Every structure is written in structure tokens, then in C-alpha cells.
Write a sequence for this structure.
């Protein structure tokens, strides 16, 4: 069972994430274990200081090395992967999420809005990951996104294994539209082909919708496949 430790300044941001939803069920069922740690637990001064002004000047505060070194040195195990969430990391992708899902032990360090001491990155971190080209106020939600994305690759977390294979990005096309009952709702009918029972025709129609949607929304994905 993969074990994930998250180190953050804002542990309460993860309360709902870990208790509700499919991920919460996966944790309850023992498919993965997630522990949230407040970085302040590793401070030693009266004010529980985690940041300080940058050497060389400039605006903002920088996460201090001492509590982070203490936290990671306490939590790490041989062979674990230590990850720092940051907008200048490698982009999260399905293959990366899948690789992470196979790790026995991950430590996710959530960053500070204004930066962390470089010695943490140089000496404690194995990989830096970004969840997209935008800047969050801190990395805690990014850590949640990484966990959610990788949890889907852990056997048993998703009820139906096959829901993994059909969807966006596994085949580099966006998803086809889905419909359920009723066949007509407020004058809006479900496309006829889906009611036809002709599986060949349905597959063709779905593929055409995928290509159409991908061309409209993510033409870059089509360029990658050709
Ligand atoms: N911390 C702040 N912004 C982030 C992002 N886009 N990805 C990962 N960590 C972050």
C-alpha cells in the first residue's frame, strides 16, 4: 500500500479532501495511506517561525531550512521519493501520476507563496512537480491534485478498472459526450445513434466527437499524435 506524507503550513486545507469522495473511500479501504503534517510541529522557537527575509534583499519571505530538514529527516524512509510542489517544476502528466502511484512512500512538501531556501531543494528534494502554468498561494492544493491524480492508478481505488482506459489523455484525445436517462429531457433528445444498439456505429460516432472536441479545445494534442 502506498504511503504519502504531506508537509504543509496549512494542514486544514486538506480536511475535506481526505475524508470525502472516492479518495476517502480508497483510504478507508486501505488502498493507500495519507498523513498530513503541520510544518510548525518542527519549529523550535516560541513564535514557531517557518520563514525569514531573503538574503540579498527583495520582497517577500522565504521558508527556512531548519524545520523542513527536521521534518523530512524524521519522515523519510529508504527509497522514498521526496517531492516539492512548485510552479517551476516538471508538469504533472498521466505517465508521471502513474509512476508516482507505484512508489511505496512519497513525501510531498508544499511550498510557501514566496519561495523556499534553495538548500532544501538541492539537498532534500528528489523531484519538483508543477500542476500547471499558474501560481497558487501555496502548494497544498497542488499536493492534493497530485494525490488525486495518482490514486486513480492504484488498483481498487476506482471501482471499475475500465473507466481508466476510455478517458481523456490516456489516448491523447479528449472525451466523447456522455448521456444517461431520460432519452429526452425538456425537449433535448439524446443523439439517436446512442439508442441504436449498433456498437460499431456508436464507437465511430464517439471517436468522431473526440476528434472534433480535441480539434476545438486542444489542437496541440492532435499535433502530438501525428
Ligand atoms: N505552488 C504554487 N503554484 C503551484 C503550481 N502551479 N504547481 C505546483 N505547486 C504550486
Amino acid at each position: 500500500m502506498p504511503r504519502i506524507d504531506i508537509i504543509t503550513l496549512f494542514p486544514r486545507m486538506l480536511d475535506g479532501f481526505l475524508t470525502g469522495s472516492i479518495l476517502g473511500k480508497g483510504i478507508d479501504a486501505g488502498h493507500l495511506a495519507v498523513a498530513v503534517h503541520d510544518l510548525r510541529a518542527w519549529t523550535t522557537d516560541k513564535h514557531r517561525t517557518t520563514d525569514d527575509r531573503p538574503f540579498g534583499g527583495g520582497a517577500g519571505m522565504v521558508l527556512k531550512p531548519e524545520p523542513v530538514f527536521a521534518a523530512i529527516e524524521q519522515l523519510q524512509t529508504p527509497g522514498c521519493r521526496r517531492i516539492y510542489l512548485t510552479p517551476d517544476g516538471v508538469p504533472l502528466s498521466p505517465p508521471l501520476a502513474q509512476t508516482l502511484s507505484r512508489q511505496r512512500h512519497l513525501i510531498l512538501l508544499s511550498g510557501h507563496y514566496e519561495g523556499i531556501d534553495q538548500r532544501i531543494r538541492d539537498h532534500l528534494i528528489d523531484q519538483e512537480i508543477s500542476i500547471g502554468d499558474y501560481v497558487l498561494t501555496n502548494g497544498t492544493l497542488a499536493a492534493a491534485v497530485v494525490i488525486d491524480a495518482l490514486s486513480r492508478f492504484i488498483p481498487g481505488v476506482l471501482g471499475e478498472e475500465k473507466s481508466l482506459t476510455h478517458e481523456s489523455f490516456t489516448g491523447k484525445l479528449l472525451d466523447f459526450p456522455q448521456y444517461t436517462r431520460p432519452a429526452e429531457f425538456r425537449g433535448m433528445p439524446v443523439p439517436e445513434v446512442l439508442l441504436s444498439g449498433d456498437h460499431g456505429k456508436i464507437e465511430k460516432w464517439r471517436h468522431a466527437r473526440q476528434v472534433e472536441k480535441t480539434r476545438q479545445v486542444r489542437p496541440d494534442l492532435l499535433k502530438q499524435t501525428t
About this structure: The two ends are 38 Å apart (CA to CA). The chain has a mean pLDDT of 93.
